[in-house]
Amino acid sequence: MVTPEVEFRSDRQIATDFLSYLQSELSEQIEYEIEPTRLTGGLDARLYRYKLVGQEPRVIRILRPAREVEELLHHQFVHQTLNQCGLSAPVIHRVSGDKSVVGGVFAVMDLLPG
Questions:
Q1: What is the helix (H) or strand (E) element at residue 20, kind and residue range?
Q2: What is the DSSP letter of 54?
Q3: How open is the CA angle 43-57-60, to the nearest 5 degrees?
Q4: Secondary structure (3-state) at 52
Q5: Burial (CB count within 10 angstroms: exposed 0-12, middle 13-18, buried 19+), residue 111
Q6: Which among 29, 32, 35 is positioned nearest to 55, based on CA atoms?
Q7: What is the pTM of this model?
Q8: I need a surface site. Which of 71, 88, 104, 109 has the fewest CB within 10 A?
Q9: CA trace torsion 12, 18, 23, 24 (10° rounding)
Q10: What is the tens place of the pLDDT at every residue in 51-104?
């Protein structure tokens, strides 16, 4: 019998851990204008909308712990290809395979309407 995966981190903990990660990666003090809030949908991932002060809104997509970064790298390639063909797909700005940051591999992408 397969047991469902447990999501260990709360939404609040993800918001805190993600901001710490961004601050260490960007080597500057940044803060949320809008803290990450969970979006509906995303059956295969947890999706959060957030906005940093002075930046455009973005989405963080966190895959379940058993999933691997190659899946997100593939999505990044597909999204780039779609955009090059003139179709609207969110630009994936960052992909991380470090599961310790937010509990799973994740991608940071543009927030598109709809």
A1: helix 11-26
A2: T
A3: 35
A4: strand
A5: middle
A6: 32
A7: 0.86
A8: 88
A9: 130
A10: 999 999 999 999 998 899 999 999 999 999 999 999 999 999 999 999 999 999
